[in-house]
Design a protein that fits this description.
3 helices; about 120 residues; SdpI/YhfL; mainly alpha
Length: about 120
């Protein structure tokens, strides 16, 4: 089996592990170790819960889309170029969870973590 295919399989396995963790490991109270942790998300329990629910849903979609793009990249591009494309996509898509979640939190909560009316 070639190394590029193994790399793509590794990418997809990592995405599946992320989905499983996000789906089954729920952060409880606000903490510094587990969960979506930004200043706004840690204001109170409401912002914490909303941020973690939203970021989990986004991360699941990111993982699903990434797996589909990984397969397409391997089949259409192939070789190490495909591996580099997937590495870049994974970084960009993973980082995109933060601005999307923060944008949605700011639509629901003010700077003090209170619901907007």
């Amino acid at each position: 089996m070639n190394i590029v295919l193994l790399g793509h399989i590794g990418f997809m396995l990592c995405s599946v592990v992320v989905v499983m963790l996000v789906r089954f490991v729920k952060p409880g109270k606000i903490n510094s170790f587990v969960g979506y942790r930004t200043p706004l998300s840690m204001k109170n329990e409401e912002t914490w819960g909303e941020a973690n629910r939203l970021s989990a849903r986004i991360q699941i979609w990111v993982s699903i889309i990434f797996c589909m793009l990984t397969v397409c990249s391997y089949l259409l591009v192939g070789g190490m170029t495909s591996f580099y494309v997937c590495s870049s996509l994974l970084a960009i898509m993973s980082i995109s969870v933060f601005p999307i979640t923060e944008y949605n939190l700011r639509k629901k909560f003010d700077a003090d973590g209170k619901y907007l009316s």
